[in-house]
Amino acid sequence: QSALTQPASVSGSPGQSITISCTGTSSDVGGYNYVSWYQQHPGKAPKLMIYDVSNRPSGVSNRFSGSKSGNTASLTISGLQAEDEADYYCSSYTGSSTQVFGTGTKVTVL
Amino acid sequence: EVQLVESGGGLVQPGRSLRLSCAASGFTFDDFAMHWVRQAPGKGLEWVSGISWNSGSIGYADSVKGRFTISRDTAKNSLYLQMNSLRAEDTALYYCAKDIGQWLVRIYLDNWGQGTLVTVSS
After folding, report:
1. A99–B47: do the CB atoms touch at under 8 Å?
2. Looking at residue A69, what is its pLDDT?
3. Which of A97, A100, A101, A105 to mutate to test the interface with B (most CBs of B within 10 A)?
């Protein structure tokens, strides 16, 4: 159950698109299409943004999209806005009723 | 409106025990799996444990296996985490979270509490 690997930080200007990667192994990200992404603003609880690799829960902006290739999942935020500045975490099912989170990525809007 | 309210955190000495509780309301508690997730100060999220809707499936992170026990009481709409043999590295904000499903397979957490802080120190 090692944490999935994410870049520590990603930045972009308003209106731009950014992509956050999430690298695991064939035992987690690569082995299941059960990847999700969470957004966490400072001092707040996390919020589910993407599930099943690319599905958005009701109420989540369509500016957020997810994908996966092999052992790496990705979250893309298009039309970057100031309110998107937050920490983002990926997560994946790892088998045997367990899951693991990524190391987290701080998104900065320049 | 879904509400999850954690309690039971506090300062505890290494090696001692603590029991966290999570009171759930605003949804049919019996229908969903539930989880504990923790976050050490200034650090990332760590999934701790999960329990299926009927307590038939339970999972633990390797870091807590054998020390922590998750349980749920449907009559009280409550989730619990019994934490034994606590270590300094267990210091964190502990969140209670609701799954979108019943089982511990597609683990997606759509509602979270505000957390209860556990500090393990002598």
Report:
1. yes
2. 97
3. A97
